[in-house]
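> forwarded from #structure-qc
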């Protein structure tokens, strides 16, 4: 009985620890460039829908938040897996036909107050704004 009680206490402590730990989020920053050959009146960014569909179909990761424009990029956020898995999904995204070049991924967490911020961002002080020079690239 004591062994079971200790295991239950250990599981409860693990759950409390996990609930206090931030979850990894990978932001995928895609330069906001019009698709080549876009005719007047058509969607200049058809790749946004393609990327959203690609991310929604992923079993290895989940869409963390709706994509949004941020500075000169459109940012997609994924979570729900280990950092390596999330970065692999981001890397696969760069190979989608029509996706602009210059994509980069930023590792952050769900406690970041806004895009590009967070203590999980490599190379930047906690809370510091990070750009491509402070991120782990998802590009192949």
């Amino acid at each position: 009985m004591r062994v079971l009680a200790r295991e239950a206490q250990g599981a409860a402590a693990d759950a409390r620890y996990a609930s206090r730990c931030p979850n990894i989020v990978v932001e995928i920053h895609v330069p906001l460039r019009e698709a080549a050959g876009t005719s007047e009146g058509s969607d200049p960014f058809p790749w946004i829908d393609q990327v959203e569909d690609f991310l929604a179909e992923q079993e290895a990761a989940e869409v963390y938040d709706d994509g949004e424009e941020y500075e000169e990029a459109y940012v997609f956020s994924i979570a729900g897996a280990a950092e390596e898995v999330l970065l692999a999904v981001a890397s696969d995204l760069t190979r989608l036909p029509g996706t602009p070049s210059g994509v980069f991924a930023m590792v952050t967490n769900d406690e970041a107050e806004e895009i590009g911020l967070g203590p999980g961002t490599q190379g930047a002080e906690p809370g510091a704004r990070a750009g491509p020079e402070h991120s782990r690239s998802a590009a192949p």
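QC bot note: The chain has three helices and four strands. Residues 11-18, 120-140 have pLDDT under 50 and may be disordered.
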